[in-house]
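Extended Data, panel c. Modelled sequence:
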Amino acid sequence: MASATGIPQQTPINPDDGGEQGDLEPLLGRPGDASQRDNAPILKNLVIGTGVIAEAAGVLLVASVWAAVFLNGPLILFSVHPLAQSMGMLVLIQSILVLQPTHTGAQKEVGQKIHAGLNLLAFATFAVGVISIEVNKGLSPGAHFHSVHGYLGVVASFWLLAQYLVGFTMFAAPALYGGEAKAKSVWKYHRSSGYVLLLLLAATVISATKTDYNVNVLGLKLWAMIVIFVLMIVGVFPRIKKHKLGL
């Protein structure tokens, strides 16, 4: 269809929403730009729209950290911490990206199950990293929580645990919230909390560049970590559906 100027008009991509464009409108872009199509494989959700940028950032994070650990050895118990935490971030990103584009009941059901499973895997991976550093601290006379990274890590760990417990119980045991309807009304707060938590985790990783271990051993650059997480935010946040946050 052409406009009066002769320039073809762009009709918003609006899959399977029965005309309800608001349910498909992301923070940036047109309705449908970051929405799963009918019968499309759910794995495609990982790279829809700006998702591919977040994926690239996650892979770059893991590649940077793992290369720094293995190239600046020796490998010690402490080495498990950055290896596990960077991998946990990559898994966590997958859990967000796979669920964001879902909008039909069937898509959401599948997406929520994968989201929960990936979040459990991410939490377990983070836990391995936390346990390794606590055991290492217990075996050495070093001071605990003497850096910004340490304090942020503690807050992020407890927040992550609470986030997972709330999300899992809302999905698996809505009776705890007074029924399915009331549980669903909490989803928008759970989502908002998750996006803020992602920013906190980003700040936690960035602050790690100022720890003694990184300064003296790994050599990861502050500017490089900032660039990686800016890309991650650019990849994740534009795909947020406004209505899922109650906007």
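The longest helix spans residues 105-139. This feature is highlighted in the accompanying rendering.
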